[in-house]
Amino acid sequence: MMNVLLVDDEPLVLEGLRTMIRWEHYGFQVCGEASNGSEAFGLIQRLMPELVLTDIRMPVIGGLELIERSNRALKRPPKFVVLSGYDDFGYARTAMRQRVAEYLLKPVDEEEIEAILRRLGSQIQGELAAEEAHRQRQRLFASHILGRLTQGEYNEDLEQQAIRGLNLPPDAELVCVLVDGVEDYAEVERQFRVLFPEEPLRSFQDGAARIGFILPASVHSEHRLQEIGLPPSRPCGRPGTGAPSSAIVAVSGRSQGIRSIRELYLQAKELCKAKRCEGKAGLFYFRDRNTASPRQDALLNEKLGCLLDCTVDGDTAKLDSALDEVFDALLGRRIGLAAAKAHVADLEFRLCRVVLEMEGAPDAYMQRVQGNCGRLSEVRDYPALKRYIHGLCREADSLLSELRLKNENNTMFHVIRHVDREYRSKLQLQDLAKQYHLNATYLGQLFKKQTGKTFNEYLHDKRIDEAKRLLKRTQMKITEIALQVGYPNADYFISKFKSKTGVLPSAYKQESERKRAE
Questions:
Q1: Helices assigned H by DSSP within 166-242
Q2: N- or C-end of the chain: fewer Cβ atoms within 10 A?
Q3: Tell me: domain 139-290, CATH 3.30.70, correct?
Q4: Which of 276, 281, 201 is nearest to 247 (CA)?
Q5: Quick one: average pLDDT of 417-443?
Q6: What is the DSSP string of 249-301?
Q7: Are 400 and 355 in contact (CB under 8 A)?
Q8: Phi, psi dihedral angles at 42 (to 5 degrees)
Q9: Which CA distances in Å does 102 have to 51, 123, 382?
Q10: How many CB atoms lie within 10 A of CB 183?
Q11: pTM of structure
Q12: Terminal-to-terminal C-alpha distance of the chain
């Protein structure tokens, strides 16, 4: 229903307008009444009606001044229909200058006003539909840009796209809000629209089905986020059991510029993972985490990076000392075992990704680790955690040494690794050929010999595999998934998905949900 506000200083006129017109028949409902322009302006700001019927001569503020104020002050003013008891061309001329939709003389003819409602209702609905379609396109574009930025992609062209698409100045101070453990993403987005009505929705979903929001630090406030309905901290419960909600709202620190979005996302992600490991739910701030100083956090990240580098580079002589330094940094942050294990789980993931990029088998690698060291979930104290990390890195060092020998001087390994990393972007065989100094036809032949597929087949399979993963694990819309995996045209994505899998993406998602329910 569209909202209409009635404004007149005569109570009988207000009553007549309210009762004699079949508002619902034309898609309207009366949301309020006012007896003067000042009162009406306050209601317009609060209720945001689509249509206002107003008298001209009223106490305090007249109808024409009300229209002028609304047009000047509001981003999206309502449409106005003027009801006047004065057949004065001067009033009509002023009304036309204020872009009034209709100018009617009292007494109002019922048929005449219903004809106006029919026309304006259709016009307003068309405008609202166009605005919603525009917002949806903007939201999809913003989600795509944020997905690329949070994954670490950055260049000047992407920054310019982000400035335009996210409607953010390049030096804006930003925060990232990450929501984990919710099922109704649309409801979360609706709440953020209500909490931050002055801001466009800059939302995205990550690979773990968390929904994120990028906000200017100037509009973010702790009070607003608490209105989501989550207390600062509480134990997690299982959804659907009547236990407390398991939702986590993690708020990053503040940082300046588009380039900082990935770091802000990583802060919120780290906070989500830590609180999930601790079995807590609620609203949390990165600034409050474990009372650790920024220097201690930077030191831990640096030491974890050094440990990863030593393992990947095969620098076994420094491996033990790097591990000792990681544990010193962990103890310096005074975090619990669950949070420490979350860091180790991330190290596992990064090592598995390196194994995969070097054409190894991450599953086989983790089986070797678990066979020799047990499972991370079974670790109960810090000494056991240190032994586990030592085994994790030693097994990776051994496997990566084998893979390095296998892939040495293998140009095709590097080409395929590049495609595996960049498949979301616009890849062309000719561009790869130039990059690796090969003839395009010859590279295509080598690619098929190495992979058993043509370049385009391999690229599409890679994208469709990622789309299948997103369809299974997230609540992203099909149009969003298409953009996420590298298909700007959703219709083309749907056609390609069906040709590869034999079913439409929507059917694939429904079947996955059915199997999960079983």
A1: 185-195, 222-226
A2: C
A3: yes
A4: 281
A5: 86
A6: EEE---EESGGGHHHHHHHHHHHHHHHHHTTEEEEEEGGGGGG--HHHHHHHH
A7: yes
A8: -65, -40
A9: 11, 13, 76
A10: 11
A11: 0.43
A12: 40
Strand 211-216 relative to strand 248-251, pairing: unpaired
DSSP secondary structure, 319-350, as one string: HHHHHHHHHHHHHHHT--HHHHHHHHHHHHHH
Domain range 420-517, its CATH number among 3.90.340.10, 1.10.10.60, 3.40.50.150, 3.90.1300.10: 1.10.10.60
How many whole angstroms separate alpha carbon 493 and alpha carbon 463?
A: 10
pLDDT in tens, 55-64: 888 888 888 8
Cα distances (angstroms) measured from residue 476 to each of 96, 438, 491: 46, 39, 16
Q: Which CATH number is 2-108 given?
A: 3.40.50.2300
Task: Categorize the per-residue pLDDT at 235 as very low, low, confident or very high, splitting at 50, 70 and 90.
Answer: very low
What six digits make up the tokens of 99? 């872009």
Decide which of 210 and 89 is more confident. 210
- Evaluate whether 392 touches 379 at the Cβ level (below 8 Å): no
Residues contacting 118, CB < 8 A, separation 6+: 26
Q: How far apart are CA 324 and CA 307, in angstroms?
A: 10
